[in-house]
Amino acid sequence: MDFTIQLPAMASNKGQVDAVVGILEEKVTPPNRKGIQLLVFLKEYALDWKGVSKAISENLKGVPGEYVNTLHAPISPTKPNELVDLRERASLRTVLDMAEFAGDHGIGNITLHSNAVTMMSDWDEKYSLESRRSEDRKKILDNLARVATVYPYIHFGLENLPLPIMGDAILEPSRSPFEFFMTESLDIVEFARELGELGRNLGLCLDVDHYEIYKAKAESLLSKYGLDFGASDMDKEGLRGLSLPLGFPESLGELVRKIRLAEGNIFDCQIGGYDGSLWLPGKQTFREGQVLSDENMGEEIVRGTRGVIGQFPGCNVSIDVNVDEYIKRPEQRASLDYFLAKVDDL
């Protein structure tokens, strides 16, 4: 199968970059290709991008050029920030800085979050959900279209987020941030179609964990309330203001098939173990980014990833798991072993 295995590392930390290169050299053999997803953090970008970019350039010296294929742009998925909120004109400067760096270093892919975050506590019920969704989408698409035109040789992939964001860590539902799009099945397909129409270098970074978390919650709500459930039912669930699932959520395989039929693009597929539990308001329940294993929906996630690779040959597969020890990285090693052992058999 035609894909590149990627491991994430903090771009400005040479120890992390070297550790990831060592794991890839040890674990990944031809015909599978190797790659690094270089993470740039908002705090370091905002404080001193010029200095940080020089440090990253130094860290990449000696790293085989084909390894350096994705830059993960700064994010702020839990708090609005104009530097990275793709609705805001100021975010263009950030994305252009990332694209200029990528172009200078032969990096062909940039992963973005829309960072178009709203807090449940700030939700204005007088403001139509569809109006807000439409306005936000237009602003984001307009900004991405400008960037894609300037850098037609770089792929820009927009990542989907779970429902809700940080649901595994925030106990108070009113403090849970959420986005108006790129969560539901139909929204993801529609956004992929619109991005593809604007430019063939615009598409998605499909985070499998995030989609499975949404899918599990949406299925539970539909099973409990039926297709006609409304705002009062969402209030009962502690979900006031959240966008409603539009029909039964697609399986991952069906979602990917529809993205292909809509002529959308998937440039990157991020995977990690997910324990399969539901998000329950006020409780820390589901866990994402776990080691890939049979216990953490491993076979289902790998099978879905195979479907993505089959529909989008050449797609990057990023092993996106929580890491406690940044040099030895046992979680990444175990997940990589699991994926490579399973991907050709499922």
Question: What does this 3D model show about the protein?
Answer:
The chain has 346 residues and is α/β, with parallel strands linked by helices. It has a single domain, classed as Divalent-metal-dependent TIM barrel enzymes (TIM Barrel, Alpha-Beta Barrel). Helix content is 42%, strand content 14%. The protein has ten helices and ten strands. Helix 1 links the parallel strand 1 and strand 2. Helix 4 (129-150) packs parallel to helix 5 (185-198) and helix 5 (185-198) packs parallel to helix 8. The longest helix has 22 residues, at 129-150.
How are the SSEs ordered, and which strands pair?
Layout: E1 4-10, H1 14-27, E2 33-39, H2 42-60, E3 68-72, H3 90-104, E4 109-112, E5 118-119, H4 129-150, E6 155-159, E7 177-178, H5 185-198, E8 202-207, H6 208-225, H7 231-236, H8 252-261, E9 266-271, H9 298-311, E10 316-319, H10 330-342
Parallel strand pairs: 1-2, 1-10, 2-3, 3-4, 4-6, 6-8, 8-9, 9-10
Antiparallel strand pairs: 5-7
Helix pairs in contact: 4-5, 5-8, 8-9
Would you kindly provide a brief summary of this structure?
The chain is of the alpha/beta class and 346 residues long.
Poorly predicted runs are: none
Structural class: alpha/beta
Cα-atom radius of gyration: 19 Å
CATH architecture field? Alpha-Beta Barrel
Task: Based on Cα principal axes, name the global outline.
Answer: globular
- Placed side by side, the strands forming the largest sheet appear as 1-2-3-4-6-8-9-10
Which sheet architecture does the biggest sheet show? 8 strands, parallel, barrel
CATH class descriptor name: Alpha Beta
Query: Could you estimate the helical fraction of the residues in percent?
Result: 40-55%
* Topology-level CATH name: TIM Barrel
Number of contiguous helices:
10
